[in-house]
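job 3f2a | input accepted
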Amino acid sequence: MTAPEDTIEPASMQNPLTPPPPPPPTLAQRSWRPFVARMHFYAGVLVGPFIIVAAITGGLYALSPVIERLVYGDILFVEPSGPAIPLREQAAAAQGAFTDLAMTGMRPPATDSESTRIYFADPSLDEESLRAVFVDPYSGAVLGDEATWFGYLPLSTWLDGLHRHLNLGEPGRIYSEIAASWLWVVALGGLYLWLAKAASERRRERAGRILTVDRTATGRARTLNWHGTTGIWLLAGLLFLSATGITWSTYAGAHVSDIRSALSWQRPQLNTALSATPEPEEAAAFGHVDRDRPPSPGQEFDPSSVDYNAVVDAAAGVGVRLPVEVALPSAPGEGIGVTEIDKPYRLTTNAAAIDPVDYRVTGKIDYSRDYSVIAKLADWGIRAHMGFLFGLLNQLLLLTVAVGLLIVIVLGYRMWWQRRPTRGSSWALGRPPARGGIRRLHPAAITGLIIAAVAVGWFLPLFGLTLAAFVIVDLAIAAAKQQRMTVKQKKETSHV
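job 3f2a | predicted structure (496 res):
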């Protein structure tokens, strides 16, 4: 049985200018490398500027604790001179300097050379900011005051905002979310390509380097060696920064919060209500014989009547140790909250609620008991991302990763420049890797890739939107090139 004649084009009638369709790829030819190479290229070129900004601002933020000590050293530190006066008297000195403001809390000094911070609500500041008054704990002298945002001084607040949203508010957070959403894709794509290159070189009986640079290479090959090797050394840090950065993002961060809430992985909240019943052994440890005294929720709280040293000592008795921040009640019937704050190599965030009348413990958060494993990992990850977990070492590591990432991106752009045509316009750009890599994959792999892209795009909305934009633009360019080629072939055929 033969095919109908109209289905077979005689050789004499075939267009000699039209190349025959390529045969379907064999199993050996099916490889992820062409697809990953093109994806890595476009992501690096188009998303690279966002990552550059994130790296620069992140590196500056990593240095903020050091810069802060230099800029605000005159109010942050004091010369020890005998015993410190009671915290109540220090609070009174700060209140005397700002009589029209209401006290909201304090940060007692954790070392002999630190000043005391007294916090006040200031109507002239935004809702999230407080006025911090710095007091010499030995003399009670007011050293100065600054606006603070969650404990951050103005310089750190500005650098933090620069990194998170370029100090443009919520619209500016789009840049950082795009950077965090794509960083892991670019990093893992680079890892695959670098390992594939090393494997290919070893099959040719060459030294397939992974962690070292081939110093004999020249030109674009030398740039590629430095690009790939540096990226491998930074890989763990880049993946860590991407994962932890996503938790702060607007859209993907909301999904993270929903998952943590559904699985009870969020941070526990301290209950400061005075109706909470203290554990008998905790109250007895401080000699509070009136532990059964009912609370007085209607009483007006007077900050000047509190013995803050007793509050800090009561919290220390249940594992809440300096440095801490003390938060005064915001409504009648609430106790004083005492919460551990960051210091190098501290892995806990213990907290306690203290009765402001008899200083008994009415509630507490035990980090080892009340935090889930995931909540602990998230807490440690965020603090490490901010450079707090391991102090100066942490900050230097973040700075190193930021500088290394800038080097990798610059080298990537250099390779693009070195790939440009050497003839023609001097402004010609390097060609991207050939398209069509996805068609060389197995159909099952293509299906899995589409499903994975949709799932990741839902979880990381800005990643999904930018990926869709890349695909649409790429298809449009391909269609335009195909149209031009078709028109050219028709013209050449008409001349034959």
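job 3f2a | The two ends are 36 Å apart (CA to CA).
job 3f2a | closed
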